[in-house]
């Protein structure tokens, strides 16, 4: 299509074909994926910095006043009754 206007800065005719001697173009799906990933990462950082996500961790599901267990049980030692 020779009647399409070319971009004077890039020489792009809108066909999506690179000119000889230029590096290949980045596909649209790569650009969109990068923008979506960057937006999600930025959103996670904002939530973590501002504290909008709330408290996370095992203590979140315990009632007030409870301390999380350490996983160590106190077992009494047998007494020596043979004396």
How widely separated are the two ends? Answer: 107 Å
Low-pLDDT windows of residues:
none
Coarse shape: elongated
Rg estimate, integer Å: 32 Å
β content, as a range? under 5%
Category from helices, strands and their pairing: mainly alpha
Task: Let me know the average pLDDT.
Answer: 76
Helix content: 25-40%
Number of helices: 1
Describe the main β-sheet briefly. none
Would you list the SSEs in sequence order as H and E? Answer: H
Q: How many strands in all?
A: 0
What does this structure look like?
28% of the residues lie in helices and 0% in strands. The protein is mainly alpha-helical. The longest helix has 23 residues. It is elongated and about 100 Å long.
What are its keywords?
83 residues, mainly alpha, 28% helix
Topology (elements, then pairings):
Blueprint (H helix, E strand, L loop, with lengths): L27 H23 L33
Condensed summary:
By secondary structure, the protein is mainly α. It contains 1 helix and no strands.
């Amino acid at each position: 299509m020779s009647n399409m206007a070319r971009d004077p800065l890039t020489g792009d005719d809108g066909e999506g074909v690179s000119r000889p001697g230029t590096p290949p173009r980045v596909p649209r799906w790569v650009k969109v994926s990068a923008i979506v990933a960057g937006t999600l990462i930025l959103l996670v950082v904002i939530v973590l910095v501002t504290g909008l996500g709330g408290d996370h961790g095992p203590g979140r599901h315990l009632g007030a006043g409870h301390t999380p267990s350490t996983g160590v049980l106190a077992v009494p030692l047998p007494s020596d009754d043979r004396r």
